[in-house]
Structure formats: C-alpha cells, structure tokens
User: Fold these one by one.
Assistant:
Number 1:
Amino acid sequence: MAASAQAQFYTSYLSFGGLMIPIYPGARLSAPRNYVAPPLVGNFWILNEGDGFTNPSVDVQVAVRDVAQEALGLTGVIGVGSKFLDYALIRSADSANDTAILPGGVVFYNGVRALLLENAKFDSFSLSASKGGDITMRARFCGTDVISTTTPSLVPWSTARLLRYNKVTFAGALAGIVWSVDAGFSNSHSPDMSMNGTTGPAAQNAGMLGATLQLTGQAADDATMGGISTAAFTIAGSNVTRTFTFGNVHDQTPDDLSISIPRNMREHSYLCKGVDGSTSGPLVVS
C-alpha cells in the first residue's frame, strides 16, 4: 500500500477578523446541510430530498498568552484596531443594540481545506481556572454561510508565555479563598429567518446579554462566598491585564451541601444581573 500524505494539526489555524491567535486541538466548524427527506407514500426508501436550513458556527479553545492583542485584547471601540474581546462585549448604540460583524469573517484552516465563516459574530466565551492548571478560554462564533477561501500562509508564532492559574487573583472578600472559577458571557444570537434565497440565515442578531459565574471554595468560607453581591477577578501578565467584574450577583445555591475528602468543599453558582440604575451589563471587562 502506498504511503499517504498526512495533514498534521500544527499546520492548521483560525483567523478571527484577520487576527491570528494560537488555538488548541479540537476546534470545530459545524455547518450541517440538514437535508429534508420525507417518507413519501409509495416509496420503499428515501428517493427525494430538499434543502434544509444551515446555521453555521465555529467552536474553539484559544490560548491565553501574555500578548495584548490576542485572546485578552480589548480597546473598547469597534473600528480600525479593534481587538478580540471588543467583538463580544460591544453593542451598537442604535435601537438594534446588535454586535458587530468581524471584518473578514472567521477563516478555518485544517491543513487541507480553508473555509470562511461569512458575516461572523462573536457569540459567547467562557473562562475557567484552578490552581495548577491553564486558564481555559473557549469561544463560539456564528455566521450566515460557509464558503471556500484561499489557503492561508502559515505565520511564525511568538514565544510569548502562557498566562496560567498563578496570574489570576480575586478582589475584596474573595481574595485568597477561591479555589476555582468558571465564568461565561453570551450574546444569545439568533438567526434572522428572512427568506432571501439562501439556505442560511440572512443575519445573526444579538439577543439578551447573559453572564454566568461559578466559584469553588472551602466549606469553611461558605458564609463569605455566599454573601457577596459583587465579584471580580484579574488576569495579570507583563503585557496585558484584564479585570472581569460581575457587578450584581446572587448566590443561587445557598443551601447546597456536600461531603468530600480530604476537606469539605462548596460550589457556588450565581445569578448575574445588570447593575441597578446603571447602563452596565452583568459583566464588565476592563
């Protein structure tokens, strides 16, 4: 049998609005055709099919490095020079209150094919960290179509260090007592189902902002962790520092208990609301 060429994962990459960020294996572009194949009377098997609805998306885990313009990039404006988190966090000032389209879309290259997620928007992201581990950042993008695009040229990566657990600190009453954090943010996009002659959505429109927060600590700190009304943690590197502030939280699990060894632990899941009397949403990144 003749040897066949193998596409190695390290020849693959994603480009987000022209921005290159290293990613972990397991990234996925999903765009099923969802063909309709009705069981028509008189047929012993499927003979006819029709176009279904395709709602394409990209899911990826990005590397959190000590680089200002990568995963933690933020300028606070949409336009020339906008960074990664800007496209998730900033809404338009008009009545649509919508998110911005990433210029150039999301290019997904698996070493064999290059596909472009058109009219891509930043739907959601999550961050998690615990002592001894990486800072895990997952992101999801949605778009209107997937088309072939030019195979990209590989770019040289820098040797910037990864930001890990030891770069995460909590403020206020939570300082020094949190064992792990799982935080999330979502724009709750939904497809525009206008009939425009395509099999995909006419656009992706942002819905209600949502944030999630779960903290784990020792049962001995139950009263402190359950009694907070705000929560903030900072990821601090040499070249980039970001603070994630949940301005109005309520413990949803005040009576959840468990027994574990070698010490009793508690997981607290919080309802994250907007700040009363303010235009700030449930999560502010600065």
Note: Helices lie at 86-89, 222-226.
Number 2:
Amino acid sequence: MLTQHTPHIELSSFAAVRHYVFQNFLVFKRITNPVAISFLTNFGWYFSLLAAPFPIIRTPTLLTPRVYALGLGYMMASNFVILFVSYRVLSHDDGGSLLPESTAWKFLSAFTLTALTTGAYAFHLVPNSHKGTFYKHRSFHDHIRQFHWRQKTAGVDHHLRPYDGLIATRALLPTWCSDYYLPKEQLVEFFTEEWPKWCNEERPGEWFDDDYRDMIDKSYLINVPEENWEGGRSRDMDALDSLAMLESHGDRKRSLKEVDSLLLSLATGK
C-alpha cells in the first residue's frame, strides 16, 4: 500500500515545497489558467528529475538551481530508503527472492557511486563563474528583478517585433510575465514616470500600440491620469509616426498601398 502511494506523496510534496518554500510553482507565463498548467508542468519536472535530470531544467524559468540540486540529492538518497523498506518492511520472503538483499545493496551502491563520480567530474569542468547556477537559490522572482529589470536590453514584443533598450524591457514585462512574479511597486513607479512621456511626447517604439495599452492592467497605472490610460495620442499621430519611420528608415520597398492606408487613417480618423 505504501509503495503504491509513494509517487503521489512525493509529487504532492514536491509541488508544496516549490510553492511554499521556493515560490516557483506557478508557471512564469501570463496565461488564462496558471494553476492547472502549473500542476501539469510540476508533474513533468518531477519525472524529469526522476528519470532524465538534464541540466536545462535548473534554470529560473523552470525548477531553479536550488530545487534542481536538492531534487537530485533526494532522488539518490530515497533509493536507499526504498531498498531498505522493500527488503526489511514489506518483504515476507524468507530468503528465496530472485535478488538477494546483499546483492541489491551492492548494485545500488555501485550505481550511485558511479553517478556521483561522473557528476562530480562534469561539475569540475563547469567554469567557476557558472558553478553557482547548479545550486544557488535564484527564483524567478529574483530572475525578473536582477536580469530583466536591470540588465536585459533586447528582445521581441507582444507581436514578435524586435526591440532594444532597458525601458522597453521593463515596459513589456506585464505583457508576458505572470503577475505573481512581477515587481508590482517598481512597475507602478516606472509607469507613473514614463507613461505620460510616452503619451504626450515621442512614442517610445512600435511596441507602444493599442494592443499594448490594452494589455497593461490598470492597477499599474493608478498614479497615471485616466485620460492617458488609452495612450493619450490620437490615431492621426500614430499614423504620422509610422510615416516618419518609413522615411527615416529609407524603406523604399514598402508598397504604395500601405502608405495609402496610413494616409486614409489620417483623413477618416479610423
């Protein structure tokens, strides 16, 4: 009975530890039903640690380094507990088993020693600057605040258009990242300072379009005047900006039909 329920107990404990201790249970993406998807991914990461613990799953977007290291340690140690319980607690065989207990202990010890030796050698080959990525605590909360908020200066927006600049990286965080991991207070301060500039001065980039403005939760704009929530810019001004981009980039291959549509939006206000 115990062995039948062990995977369920381990899986539930794994999810609880990830959520309450390391706070990285929820998926990092902004999706409709994060809890259900998180349970499915937790199931996958658990069996990945059990059967194929590839180092890629240690990244902050998946398990995080600390959970990865502790998970591997647990999986190796639990093998000895399972073997002990199997032969000493659950077995009712009087020495007639196919594999004697002493032989099972020798096999398990040899395989574990081999895994530890090869793992130690592989870890030795990792550059010192990256060794910490295998065991240090770095949740996705930390990853957002340390990398995305301070260092990342390029990527793609909500329409997969390339952008550059730290301002754009910060501004686009709410379009893809789960609210659970976002630095909410910092975003409120950021939008309070930057949003009026984007509305009343030069548009910061192609990403500041109607779709982007619709995607930003108004709780991040509590200190921004409501008349600016929808952008504060007319479609005429957006069309003029688009025409200016065509001229500044010298894109002569753009069809006349596209330019005509922009001019039509100026004339009709649509």
Note: The chain has two domains: 2-134, 174-233.
Number 3:
Amino acid sequence: MGIERRGARLTRRIDRRGAIPKMRRFNSTADVIAALQEEIRKQLDGAQTKIDKAWYWGMVGTVEASAAHAAQRTIDTLDQQLPVEEFISKAYAALTELACRFRNDPTDEDGYGLGTVYDVQRVLRFEE
C-alpha cells in the first residue's frame, strides 16, 4: 500500500496482487452453478458471433468457445453436493488452474481464451 498524489489530494493506493479475493455470497450450490452456466452461455454466444464473422475475427471465436467449453467441463467435474462455500472455493481453484493452462497455451497467444476463463471465474468474486 502506498500514497499517490493526484491533483491537490493524496489518495491511498492499495496493491491487491496476490491477495485472496472476496467471494460472492450465494444461497445454494445450485445458485452458483446456475450463475456459472449463465456466464458460460453468454461467452458461447459471444464466441459464436465471432465465429460467424471469422473473416474479421479469425480464430478468436473458436478459441473463446473452446475456453467456455473447458470451463463447463471443469465445473461439471466438481461435486455438486458440496456445501456452497466449499463448492465456490473448489470452483475458483479449478478455474484458476484452467486459466493457467490457457496462459501457457501457444494456441491462445492473444489471450482471448484466458479472458473467457477469467470472465467465468469473475462470477464467483465480489467486485468492490
């Protein structure tokens, strides 16, 4: 944490790198799964739009669709009978691992697949 000068005011700058994110509250594991599936559906819709305009986007839509399907498979492998907090924790960790795989994937050199995984993972975080 540091202090930055902006105009006539001093503002506090908080460095959040490496910090454990706050997780959103859900009433049940089914609610978590529904929210994740809704985001995956949105990502697939966006990917399909890019696939339809491949003359402009190239392979971006295919990479995003691949990432969205990988996120769905990742969520499907988790035990849906877990308590909600434990399910969120395991889903977040599994999606973080998936993001690392996309970060190191040479076919996703522009990071569109990685961004797709992060968008799905963001559903679990509480954004301030």
Note: Helices lie at 29-52, 54-57, 60-76, 84-103, 112-122.
Number 4:
Amino acid sequence: MAEEMGYEVPSKEAIDSTPKTGFAPLVADDYIAKVVDIQLHEKNDWNKLTKRYDGPLVWSYTIVLSICGLKSGDKIEDMNGKEGQPFTQFLYKDLNPYSTGFQPDGTPSLLRGFISNITKTDVNAGLKVPTFILLKNVEGGNKEVVTDPIIRGEYYTKMASKEFMAGYMAVPDIRGFKGKYVGCSIITKESDKKGLKNAINSFGKVPNSFTITDELEALAEKNYVEYQEKIKAYREKKGAEGSSAPVGSVDVGEVEIEEVL
C-alpha cells in the first residue's frame, strides 16, 4: 500500500507571492473619470422588505464613468497590485433625478455633487443646468416624460415666476454632461455575489492641472466601444443560454461589467 501523503496548507508568504488572476477592484482613492454615458430610465425601486430592486417603478439616471487616472497623478493599481491603464475600468452609478438638496448633516446629494463639480460651481450656491426634463403624474402613481413644447413652455414660464403647475414636476437634464470629466472618490465594499467591489462614494472637482490630449480622447472612445461590444456579446450569450444577466458584477475578462438595468 502506498504511503498516504499529508495535506499542506500554504503559508501567508506563499499565498501573497502567488500571482493573482481575474478581476480585482481598484484601490480606494480619488480619481479623475470621463462621463461616457448618461441614461434616464425607469427602474424598480429598492424594496426594504424583500431587499431587492422589485419595488414600484421610479425614474433614475444611470451614469457610466471611465477611469482616466488618479487625481494625485500616481499609477492606477488594483487591490492585487496590478497596474491599470487609463479608460479600461468602468463604473456605474445611479442618481436620483429628484434629489438636488442636502442631507440633514449638510452633505450634498450625489446628483447635486455631480452637477456642481461638472460645472465647477460651489456646491452650496445655486446651480444652473442648461435644460430640464418635465415629468407628468399618471395613473398608478408613476410619471411620464413630457416632450410637448407647448406644455414645456407653459411650465417654464410658471417656473420662472416661481409658480407651480399641478401634476407636473421638472428635474435637471444632466445628459448634456456626457463627455465631460469629473473627480470621484472610489471606495471598496462587500458585494453579495463577488466579495469586494468598487463603488462611487462622492464626486469632486478635476484638478486645474489636468489636461486631456487628442490621443487620450481617442483611447477613451476606442476602449468604450470595445467595452460595449463585450457587454453585448455577454448578454447575447446569456440570452442564448436562457438566462438574463444578473444584478451585480459580471467579469468577462479584461473589463468589469456592472449590471444595473
């Protein structure tokens, strides 16, 4: 009978020296990012009872940020110590279109922080956005987007006079900020499905010293097109298998897909 071999548990030194594979979150820090997409869409709200996004339909902005670099100018690194490249990491963030104020402790809402830093305006001052989206109350407590120029004009006239128009509500239209750069504070947090993941904690201004070249802009465009192709291929594959993409983080190789829809 062959002698039974024991089982050896590797030391911490051995584990740390083993090359890491797969996706790892970025190191928590302050970054500069390009806003590569902004979508306004209806989605199911968070249900506190089921702890799932299966609540009533609400309007939400979803912005997609492509990480350009660190505000400090240091190299991008993930939590495994692997160096990252500009515009190869993409993060999603939902913003409540109705929330433009402050929390009780004085912290600005994420949407207010986004607008103030994109427009380089003091977060406590009045903010100006070029246009607005008009929503109308409909049956069931939902809202629909109003595109009729006559109704929009009537609402704008009343809004300028600080009057109200019953059954309607305007929210800032931030879709025109697509293509702009913004600072963002990125943290790591636990994900139910994949352990640690990145999340956008707040927005900040882009340093005055920051400059973008035509070469970097072309790289940002190229990488985002390739990223979208990966998303499309992934969803087509999941559809062929009779399964929809899950909510959470989906690793498809070189980039991280955040399913938020």
Note: The beta strands are 29-44, 57-70, 90-95, 132-137, 143-146, 168-172, 181-191, 195-204, 248-251, 256-259.
